[in-house]
C-alpha cells in the first residue's frame, strides 16, 4: 500500500503563495473566481465536454523556465496537476480540480531543412507542425485531424495516414526535452536518458512533461488524393463485405500509400456506411485503388476525392460538420482483430453498434464506428520492447465513439461503450477458437487496444502489456510520488528488499 500524501486541489493556497508563483513566471496564472468567467471557462474547455473540471489554478507558461517553476510549486504544495496541450483526449486527462499546466502559449516550430528535423514546443497542435514543414516541402507524421495536440498524440503513440510508410508519430521522435517531477529539464534521446526516451514514446505523461519534441521529417513534393465515399444504409452489408478485400488486395499492395478507414456514422438515427480514403500519390494511381468503392455506387455528392496538400487532408474544418456542437459528450473504446477478419466478427461489429444506437435514437446524434483498415506492418516491425508503446499489431482496429448530448446519460453511455467492446472482444475470442487460430498479427505479446481511443479505465496490463513492469521501474526513478497521475498512471515499482 502506498503511504504517499494525497494531492490537494490548491483551494487552500493563500494569495501570497499564488503571488510567489506569479512573481517567478513570464506567463499568466489564473485563479478560479479571480479571472473573468469568460476567460476561465474558455481555458477549461475541452473537445469532450464530459470531463471538464473546475480547476482552481490554470498556469499558461511562456517558457521552459515557467514550466519548471510551476512544477516545483506543484511539488512543494503536493497539488493535483494536469497537462493540457490540444485538449482532444477522449478520457479527459487534461482536466483536473487542482492546477492545470496549459501549454497553449508554447506553439513554436523550428525546421532544419538540411537535417530534415522539426523542433516543436510541447503545446503545438498538429496543424502548426504540418504547416511549418510543408512550407519547406517536408512532411511530419501526425494524426488524421490537425486539431489534436502534438503532446497527447506523440506520447500516446499516434496513428497516421503516413504510418504505413513511416511508423507511429512516436516512432518519428528523435529527441525530446522533458520537465521532470522535481522541475529539472532534461534531454531524452537514444544517447541521453535513453530510458526516459523509451518511456515518453507510448507511456504518455507518466514520466514528465515534454517541453519540446524533435521530429524526423520526410520529403513532400506532391499533393495527395483524399476524400469521403458515403453509401446509402441499404448498402451496409456490401460495404462490410469489402473490408477484407480493401485491406488485403488494395491497401497491402500499395507500398504503404493507400490508407482507408471504414466508418459507420449515425445520421438522424440511421447508420450510414462509408470510407475515408487517402492515397499518397497521383490521381491516376489513386483511381485504381478506389475502384471497388466507385463500383459499389457511392452517394454522389458528397462522395469523391480530390488532390490536395497533405496538410489540407487533415484539416479539421472538413470534419467539423460531423460534430454539431450539441453532441459533445464522448466515450471511445477500441479493439483489434487479425486479417482476414471473420464475417461473423464483421457482422457483430456493426450489428452491435446498431443495437446500441437504436436504444437511444434521440441522443446519440453523431456517434460513429471507425474500422481502421490501414497497413500496420511498419508499426509492428518495431520491436515490442523498443518503446513503451505496446499495441504493435497488424490487425483491423475497431474504434467505437458514442457521442451524445444529455449529461444524464454519461454513466449509461460509458457502460454501453464498455459493453460494446467487451462483447466484441468475446466474439473475436470465440471465433478465433472455432477457427483454431491464435489471431496475432504482429508481435505475439502486443496488446489489442489503442490507448488513445479508450475511456481511460482499461487495465494497465491491457494498455502497456509486457512493457508494464519497465514502466513501473521508470516511474520509481522519474516520478516516485506520482505527480503525473492523469493518463494511465502506473504505480512505482517496489524497491527490492
Ligand atoms: C477528432 C479526433 C481525431 C483524432 N485522430 C487521431 C488520429 O488520427 N490518430 C491518433 O493516433 N489519435 C487520434 N486521436 C486521439 C488523439 O491523438 C488523442 O486524444 C491525443 O491524446 C490528443 O492529444 P492532445 O494533446 O490534444 O490532448 P490533451 O487532452 O491536451 O492532453 C492529454 C494528455 O496527453 C498528455 N500530454 C499532452 N501534452 C503533453 C506534453 N507536452 N508532455 C507530456 N504529456 C503530454 C498528458 O497526459 C495530457 O493530459 C483523435 C482524437 C480526436 C478527438
Automatic annotation (TrEMBL):
Keywords: FAD, Flavoprotein, Oxidoreductase. Its cofactor is FAD. Signal peptide: none annotated. GO terms for molecular function: FAD binding; oxidoreductase activity. Transmembrane segments: none annotated. Residues 50-220 form the FAD-binding PCMH-type domain. It comes from the Eukaryota. Belongs to the oxygen-dependent FAD-linked oxidoreductase family. This is FAD-binding PCMH-type domain-containing protein. It comes from Orbilia brochopaga.
